Amino acid sequence: MYIPEIPNNSLTSNIEQIKELALALHEKRKFVFNTPASLSEIKEWEKKNDLVLPESYIDWLIFSNGSVLRGTAAEIYGLNKIDAKSEYFPDDYVIIGSLTGDGELICFSKKTREIFIDDHGDITNYDSFNELLEDIINDIKGLW
Predict the structure, then answer these.
(1) What is the mean pLDDT of the chain?
(2) In a 3-state reduction of DSSP, which class is residue 7?
């Protein structure tokens, strides 16, 4: 199993916990980490899509440009899978991942860059991508 080098940024502590879970569970549950995105790739994506990504999500992309955590527990999209123009959701939504495989979407607002989960119209707001990662870690530990 490939695990990228852990960057020194706002997510370091949570990434270290995810790495430990991945190593402990990799024989039973799927963990996938793609190679990191470079800052120039991220800036190019932002320019091409006329969007500014939340800093804490950029910190994840610098670790892994797309990942799957514990099978269907969470998928965090890389630059090539971000959905900034879904015909099924409000124009303000940018979809950057999914949870539990049943339609819970990890999103951020184009206007405010705030991270939130849309669970079939039920919204849960987060202060940052880091706070969302804490919930994902707790869910994975609870499923362990």
Answers:
(1) 93
(2) coil
